[in-house]
Specification:
The complex is a heterodimer of chains A (115) and B (113). Chain A has 115 residues and is mainly beta. Chain A has strands spanning 9-13, 18-23, 31-38, 45-50, 55-56, 61-64, 70-75, 84-92, 109-114. In chain A, the strands form two sheets. In chain A, strands 1-9-8-3-4 form a five-stranded mixed β-sheet, with no helix packed on it. A four-stranded antiparallel β-sheet of chain A has the order 2-7-6-5, with no helix packed on it. Chain A is globular, with a radius of gyration of 14 Å. In chain B, a hairpin with a 5-residue loop joins strand 4 (31-37) and strand 5 (43-50). The relative contact order of chain B is 0.34. Helix content of chain B is 0%, strand content 51%. By secondary structure, chain B is mainly beta. Classes of the chains: A mainly beta (115), B mainly beta (113). The A-B interface holds A 32, 38, 41-46, 49, 87, 94, 97-107 and B 4, 31, 33, 35, 37, 42-45, 48-51, 53, 55-56, 58, 89, 91, 93, 95, 98-107, 109.
Chain lengths: 115, 113
C-alpha cells in the first residue's frame, strides 16, 4: 500500500503557482520522496525526487519539511498542459539487485488548471 | 531526449491466447520494470528485472506471466493464456545504474475479449 496521503483534487488558475501537498508521516530515513504525474492515460512522467533537501529542476520544486513527514510539489507557473494526476511516492534507497526499487502508486491528486 | 518505447500501442486478443508486449528501454539502462493499470484504478507494479533475472515480483505476476530480455535492446512481457481481467494498460519502465529514476513508456492498451 502507498505510504503517502494526498488530497483527492485541487485546481489552480493558469499562470499561478500550484502547490501540491503530500503527507508521508511514516517515512523512514532511507526513503526518498518522488513525484510523478500522469496525463490522461499516458505513462507516468517523472517530475522530481528528494531525500531531505529541497530540490528544483526545470519542471518543479520540491519542498520537504525538516522532519520529512510532509512535502510540497510546486509548479511555479501552471499551464493547461499541467492538468494531470500527480503522485507522491516514497521509495527506499536502491539495492544493487533492484529489489525493493518498485514504485508504489496511490490514487494521487488530480490537478485541474483552469484558464 | 532518450525515451522508453513500447509496441504495440493497442492489442486486442481472445481469452486464452498468448500475447507478447514489447518494450525498448533507454539505451544503457540496466533495470527494467513492468507495471499495469486497469481502467480507473491505480498503477500496479508487476515485476522488476536486472542482470537477466527477476529482482522482485508482485502477487499479480503469477505463472501466466514471464519476462525476457531476448537481445540487447528489447524487454518483453508475455502472458501465456490471457484472461478477461488482464485487460489493462501495461507500462514498461527502465532505470540507469543508480536506479534513482524510472522512466516510463507510453504503454500498451491490452483488451481481452
Amino acid at each position: 500500500d502507498a505510504k503517502t496521503t494526498q488530497p483527492t483534487s485541487m485546481d489552480c488558475a493558469e499562470g499561478r503557482a500550484a502547490n501540491l501537498p503530500c503527507n508521508h508521516s511514516t517515512i523512514s530515513g532511507n526513503e526518498y520522496v518522488y513525484w510523478y504525474r500522469q496525463i490522461h492515460s499516458q505513462g507516468p512522467q517523472y517530475i522530481i525526487h528528494g531525500l531531505k533537501n529541497n530540490e528544483t529542476n526545470e519542471m518543479a520544486s520540491l519542498i520537504i519539511t525538516e522532519d520529512r513527514k510532509s512535502s510540497t510539489l510546486i509548479l511555479p507557473h501552471a499551464t493547461l498542459r499541467d492538468t494531470a494526476v500527480y503522485y507522491c511516492i516514497v521509495r527506499p534507497r536502491n539495492s544493487y539487485t533492484g529489489a525493493n526499487s518498485k514504485l508504489t502508486f496511490g490514487k494521487g491528486i488530480t490537478l485541474s488548471v483552469r484558464p | 531526449e532518450p525515451e522508453v518505447t513500447q509496441t504495440p500501442s493497442h492489442q486486442v486478443t481472445q481469452m486464452g491466447q498468448e500475447v507478447i508486449l514489447r518494450c525498448v528501454p533507454i539505451s544503457n539502462h540496466l533495470y527494467f520494470y513492468w507495471y499495469r493499470q486497469i481502467l480507473g484504478q491505480k498503477v500496479e507494479f508487476l515485476v522488476s528485472f536486472y542482470n537477466n533475472e527477476i529482482s522482485e515480483k508482485s502477487e499479480i505476476f503469477d505463472d501466466q506471466f514471464s519476462v525476457e530480455r531476448p537481445d540487447g535492446s528489447n524487454f518483453t512481457l508475455k502472458i501465456r493464456s490471457t484472461k478477461l481481467e488482464d485487460s489493462a494498460m501495461y507500462f514498461c519502465a527502465s532505470a540507469g545504474a543508480s536506479q534513482e529514476t524510472q522512466y516510463f513508456g507510453p504503454g500498451t492498451r491490452l483488451l481481452v475479449l
